[in-house]
């Protein structure tokens, strides 16, 4: 009698192990973790992109102000002409000198700021971050969908389907399909120009 009970217990353990008693919650937790990865990457995009855009805008405005100053100083310097008859007029020579000095100071300021002038590099960094972020999101969604497929296959395959239905009341998970309003849309990058 004892041996029959042992065999019955061993057979029950084997049947239960083949019914997915542990694989169903494991697959369910994997789906939840993959979905958390998707949400995390969306949040990363929401946090990162506006800050990068603001940084690029700020650098661009600084560079623009320096370049506008140089352009205006150059234009002013080119409008003041001193002819050979004006060489005897100290006021004309002083006006010419001020315009040329202003241009020289603007050029000097641009040379001093040159190491800081990096809007092109900032734009390149922004584009790289945008691409990397969108790639992360794509990978996270793909991993989520793979986990959903594995879970759904697990709860629908015999004999695990019996355990999934009776013990866990498991229902199929929905794969990612960009239907949530706004969640799937990448943020608009606007430099205001």
Q: What would your notes on this structure say?
A:
The chain is mainly α and about 190 residues long. The chain has one domain: de novo design (two linked rop proteins). The chain is about 75% helix and about 0% strand. The protein contains five helices and no strands. It has helices at about 1-15, 25-80, 90-115, 120-155, 160-170. The termini are far apart.
Which keywords apply here?
193 residues; mainly alpha; single chain; 75% helix; de novo design (two linked rop proteins); 5 helices
Q: How far is the first residue's CA from the last residue's CA? A: 88 Å
User: Which structural class should the secondary elements be placed in?
Assistant: mainly alpha
The pLDDT mean sits at: 77
Outline: rod-shaped
Strand fraction equals under 5%
Number of helices: 5
